[in-house]
User: Fold this.
Amino acid sequence: MYTQNPVFIPGPTNMPEVLRRATDLPTIDHRSAAFADILQPALAGVRKVVKSENAEIVVFPATGSGGWEATITNLLSPGDKVLAARCGMFSHRWIDMCQRHGLQVDTVHSSWQQPLPLAEYEKRLFADKGHDIKAVLVTHNETATGVKSDVGAVRRLLDDAKHPALLLVDGVSSIASMDFRMDEWKVDAAITGSQKGFMLPVGLAILALSPKAMQAAQSAKLHRAYFDIREMAKTYPSSGYPYTPSVGLLNGLKMSTELLLGEGLDNVFKRHARIASGVRAAVSAWGLRLYAQEESSFSDTVSAVETPDGFDATSIVTHAAQKYAVAFGAGLGDVAGRVFRIGHLGSMSDVMALSGIATAEMAMADLGLPIRLGSGVAAAQEIYRNTAASAIRNAA
Ligand SMILES: *Cc1c(COP(=O)(O)O)cnc(C)c1O
Assistant:
């Protein structure tokens, strides 16, 4: 099936034509100099996008979840204790993966409507005088709930507690769309995938690792074979790869970072913030609420919208797909059926967002919700016409 409609799922995201074309390469010999011209700019570009001077960028043929696995198996040892909060479907799944690798997860169970519970992290870090906690996990942006957390605040807690734990951050739905400051926050491992902020097909797990993380990888004892960051780091300086690289995707990654840096990271983040505020204005014009409770934690990449009690939110997703060929995200895990999600990250413009808002209105009205057609669109239009930056710049 082919449709020209954009998707409004929080990944995979819409692909700009220029990036689709960049991934479509004739076969090249990845041991030739031509590969160096792809790999090196891709790595350097990612380093800039995560705002780091000297992070080791490692790219595996995998997805974001593969990035979780690579992070924990390279940096930790069996039985190591890690601190994590279960505050959404993605943090839940990361915790599950840690447990399956034999890590001891000190899990904070917290409200899915709230950001990461800093006070609880603080308590546990300060109580851990023996430094048993080897790593602290943070999901920067919970894609299931549209709640973002404050990574910098976790860094401050670690510093205040003089705690040496590694700071591992899932940035799969934030990196390249929302501000991410690897060096300033002293993040030890930042994880993302190709199919979200980088606007590419799925297929790459992208990691940024601090010198401290690379050091930890030397002595970590969990089994790793295919996902060995040491082997990657060893071969990269000569533009080698431990196995056959996904050359087309890497060329896409090089091009994607050129697009993002060409637009300017600040402009990329502002564009996401502006589009998100239009979506939020639409949601309140509909008389609905976001699942996220605190304004300071509203995500700029995905909005989870609560539907009235007794209404199956997933029916909106199913109906919009069947009748209008437009994809929204269903609620996951604890919020299945209670929310539907509007993804607004990656290659997204004001005009595209308006089409998604309009479609959501039609679907909800079709299903009998008391939505006045045009109400959300009008609310978003007011935001966009008052804040629009030059559209030309985003037209790539
Ligand atoms: C999409 C996503 C993942 C999983 O990534 P995959 O590429 O599907 O493996 C993990 N964490 C977050 C926050 C995500 O949005």
About this structure: The chain has a mean pLDDT of 96.
